[in-house]
Amino acid sequence: MNLRDAALDAWSVLLPVTCAGCGADDRALCPACRSGLHATLHRRQLADGTTVVSALRYEDLVRRTILAFKEQGRTDVSRPLATALSVAIAAAVIGRVELVSIPPGRAGLRRRGYDPVRLLLRRAGLPQPSPVLSATHARAHQKTLDREERQRNLAGSMTANGWLAGRRFLLVDDVLTTGSTLMEAARALREGGAEVVGAAALAFTPMHFGDSQLMPSQTRDKGRVAGLRWAKEARKYRLVPLGVAPDGTRRTPWKFPSTVAT
Ligand SMILES: [Zn+2]
After folding, report:
1. CA 18 to centroid of ligand 1, rounded, Å
2. DSSP reduced 3-state for 215
């Protein structure tokens, strides 16, 4: 046992922690659960043509860990989730893009005290999402609605902040269910004149996307290595200035490599 482990174990006596994946007495995630969170990429095309790349299947260990992260304040498991998300983003990026996330509901933000997607991006060393989308009215909670109800509930629920012509975006979300939310966000961005190159999600719900394709070139280990390499690349680009957008807001000054070598 090294010093760091000893210190952490002493700490866990004061503040008992169980693995968010399996409940074993351990720190945030036991080694076995941690290794189960490596990205295995899936690509899916939504009804509006938007391509979504997801890192993980939302079931079992992944589901428990994401729920702990989102609903039980277990931000201590954010790092492996952030790595998985960054692998999906790396695979979904085409050229130079800004990231954009779904505007979080006020209730969720108040309850959690943090925005899960923003936190994951920060942990991954990636840019924060551009503030280009707003919610126009409160959305009913989506969980209990079917696909059509979701679409009705969401229609017109987001709007672009200002005119976004000439700007390219990649949507980022945590859990992909029917894709209705991402499609509504893409619609709002496109109506604002923006180009939407695709979307990346931390996880997808197999129940809704049973026929998702496993991306053949991305084996688990290769995808992980590529994601880490890419995150390092992205950090290098942090200081590339892109200037100021037509609406006066600063554009996220990042450039992403167009492809990820595997
Ligand atoms: Zn575990």
Report:
1. 8
2. coil
- Residues near ligand 1 ion, CB 5 Å cutoff: 19, 21-22, 30, 33
Backbone angles phi, psi at 105, to 5 degrees: -65, 145
Return the CA Rg of the chain: 19
Of the candidates 132, 81, 124, 79, which has an alpha carbon nearest to the alpha carbon of residue 238? Answer: 124
- Which numeric CATH code is attached to 37-239? 3.40.50
Q: What is the pLDDT along the chain (262 residues), one digit of tens a residue?
A: 566 656 555 554 555 589 999 998 877 899 999 999 999 999 999 999 999 999 999 999 999 999 999 998 899 999 999 999 999 999 998 888 999 999 877 777 788 888 999 999 999 999 999 999 998 876 666 667 677 777 777 778 899 999 999 999 999 999 999 899 999 999 999 999 999 999 999 999 987 655 445 554 344 444 445 555 545 544 443 322 233 333 444 444 333 433 333 3
Global pTM value: 0.75
